[in-house]
Amino acid sequence: MTAPVYPPKPKPGDRVAILSPSSGLPAVLPLPFDLGLRRLTEEFGLKPVEYPTTRRMGCSPQERAADIHAAFADPEIKAVIASIGGDDQITVLPHLDDELIRANPKPFLGFSDNTNLLTHLWNLGIVGYHGASVMTEFGRPGALHPVTGASARAALFTSGPYELTEPAEFNDIDRPWQEPATFESEAPMQPAGGWTWHRPERVVEGVSWGGNLEILGWLLMADRGIRSPEAYEGCVLFLETSEELPSGEEVFRILRNMGERGLLARFPALLMGRAKAWSFDRPNDAAQRAAHRAGQREAVLRALAAYAPDTMAVFDVDLGHTDPQVVIPYGGTVRVDGPARRITVTY
């Protein structure tokens, strides 16, 4: 396949679109959203621009698609950033004007349900950026995490290689966004433990593809946006799971289906995000969180053994639903150096 093209980057002082292509949660949880907008303005020097559906719950797929079109078509808008994810962005995809978007490529930042739009942009030949949503990363309680901030700043403003590093700490226990006290301090962090490597005997460099595993499973079921296996030959797969905490068995089944479709073996390297292991519905203790992560890791290894035994994998990379979070270029170049234990992305 032809490698996707990196859109021009914004610079401080530029206008950026803030959209809700999935859920209009800024309407009911304004505290992290307004904090994120303030940080984009004060710390990044950007000028956020909201659209009709940005702060509205229950907007139709057509309305959300119209905002995407307006943001991409406006020459004054230099990047597009998602407010947050959701669970129905797949319904927006059929309403997108591919020619309009292809003619006006711009950096798009988001993750989780935004895997839908990132996959769509990949198919249009446009590099996107998996990570850095307004409410979750820019609106983080207390302060923007330095690891997240450095990665987001590099993804937004710079071009070229960026080496990921292993943070010493992380957190995945949330506090209620409706309470002002939540935003007065940072959440307690815990030791991160570093990355875990599987089959690190070689160096793999390729175009990245992937995102949230549950969303990819939905796209596979709907037969929407997933190309023939040959299109992914030599690509670097990256995956992460959400706050819905899919079990190891669920993870295995999605990967098994990818294997049966002939997809999994096309990827010589896999970056697996640090699994989120706590939610308000399932407030797991430390032992339960460790068991959840171990179960997911075992499931991935089981699927690789069955369908892609030569694939190199790195576990607990800080991408997706974790804090801190690094931004992964979606369709950009990723180099996974097994012998040196290094991961370098190209923004």
UniProtKB/TrEMBL annotation:
Domain LD-carboxypeptidase C-terminal: 205-336
UniProt entry tagged with the keyword S-adenosyl-L-methionine: no
SUPFAM superfamilies named in the record: Class I glutamine amidotransferase-like, LD-carboxypeptidase A C-terminal domain-like
Residue ranges constituting the LD-carboxypeptidase N-terminal domain according to the UniProt record: 16-131
Keyword presence, Membrane: no
Keywords: Hydrolase
Pfam annotation, one family: Peptidase_S66C
Protein family (similarity comment): Belongs to the peptidase S66 family.
The name this protein goes by in its record: LD-carboxypeptidase
Organism: Kitasatospora arboriphila
Record lineage: Bacteria, Bacillati, Actinomycetota, Actinomycetes, Kitasatosporales
